[in-house]
Amino acid sequence: MSVRYAALAAAVLALIAVPYVISGQYYVNIASQILLYAVFALGLNILVGYGGLVSLGHAGLSGAASYAAAYLLAHGHGHAVAIAGALAAGLLTSAVFAALSLRASGISFIMITLALGEIIWGLAYRWISITNGDNGISVSTRPAPFGISLASADGFYNATLVLFLFSLAACAIFVNSPFGAALAGTRDQPRRMNALGFHVWMIRFWAFMFSGLLSSVAGILFVYYNQFISPQALALTASAEGLLMVISGGAGTLLGPVVGAALVVIVKNVVSGVRFDVSGQMGFADIVKFILNGLFQHWNFLLGAIFVLIVIFMPEGLVPGTVRLARVAWRRANRRKPSAAVPAPAAEQKP
Amino acid sequence: MTALAVKGLSKSFGGLRVTANVDLVVQPGERRLIIGPNGAGKTTLFNLITGELTPDAGAVLLFDRDITRTPSRDRPHLGMARTYQIITLFPNDTILRNAVLALLGLSPLRWNPFATLHRQQHLLDEARAALARVGLEHMADRPLAETSYGEKRRVEIAMALAQRPRVLLLDEPFAGLSIDERRDVRMLLAAIPRDVTVVMIEHDMDTALELADRITLLHFGEVVCEGTRAEVVADPRTREVYLGE
Hints:
The complex is a heterodimer. By secondary structure, chain A is mainly alpha-helical. Helix content of chain A is about 75%, strand content about 0%. The longest helix of chain A has 27 residues, at about 200-225. The radius of gyration of chain A is 22 Å and the shape is globular. In chain B, helix 5 links the parallel strand 7 (about 165-170) and strand 8 (about 195-200). In chain B, helix 2 packs across helix 3. The interface of A and B includes residues 173, 192, 194, 197 and 199 of A.
């Protein structure tokens, strides 16, 4: 356990150090993006990983919060009002989503959330008097909580980091709580949970609301990060991307969605900007560079290829998959040791 | 006062009458055995009693309280617990965690998203005590997936008993067990105190016969006969149902 806490402390320190170590606004902004998408993925993971309810409409929840904030700011309200209104809009939308979609589970649940997400997208696109349609709404300023300006890349990163750490801690507390255990129970054996006296629907409803709260926080961060919101942010692809973050990193694990968010954001932004110089001679190295350039340019294709590899080699996701492979390697290394003093089953113990 | 009463209970799936005007009265502390061949409607009757199915007609009374319209999730809170014929447990969790979930189902703590479950010492102690009753406390921390079928059956019973039910419904507790496992489960059931009323379905008459005070024979969803062990065994209709004419 102490090793785990030490690793956690080191990771937090590394995250705090990011603006000091990395020079250049561009990469600090990328780090902010990773963290805000991580908050979104953490929220989705509560439902997908712990509740067994796959949602394809979560961009509608964060989008409702984003639009509420942008609308209130555009109409001259302060940041406090905008943020409070955004949380209220996000939670209200979540409650409506939950009430309608929790009539079903499995494939039907996915389809209902997809349809609801599309409705929110349609509203953003067509309700022009409120949303300004395809042109979106611009946000001129970022808030300055406690007098600290978030206008700079570093300032915004720090604020995002604080909210990310809060979200991660909230998830950790939630999944280890009695309620979290009840939610996981409804994922594995809903009928049995009902027969044991649990209110399966109500458990799922409150889990949906917690998920919606984190989505709303991510939506607020999103609109302040971009200082702009348009229907594109609410599209089905945005919901699907969140789902890919959760599944590729490891659904039902705390750190999986964070790793997944990092993977998607890095491939999308950083890798797509990398270009190798190809000399005209077309040797082997040049051909490799040429292919990589093509892959990097079409980041969608690269992301797809990475997901295929994850599904083949680590179907449980990157985080649990890596833990499993590390455990296998550790066991093998122990077995090869010639000394008979270490009994083999010692490797069975879980950390 | 009766522990469990069923009055004129009926249920059809399409044109098939699975439960047809069934009456059942079980006294407090009684051990009632419900027998019948495959498809007699035994499990359907249980699902109607626990509320997992809604009856087309009739009423279910628990200690003289009409619970026909009570949602099935509320019935454990009124003192009704059940086990399933097909084992329905949480395979990814430890045995202890399975028992903890059973206790959590009746605890207000189940709504608490802030507390830490593995620090709820009284809950863990109670779960270990429930496992001790079925002789599994030594393997409490083992994942359920790594246990035998007979052990899983005992976990089922431990979870039902952990809820301190007043009426316990056992759906084929001996199904799929070896001879040794059957003996263990039989001793376990015989040790249940008499303040718990037990209603048990068993497909195979011989196994559970000695546990029963009274026996009800179901056939095609109807009660064919009911009485003491000797009466039902001696009844020619029992012979007819089980052996054909």
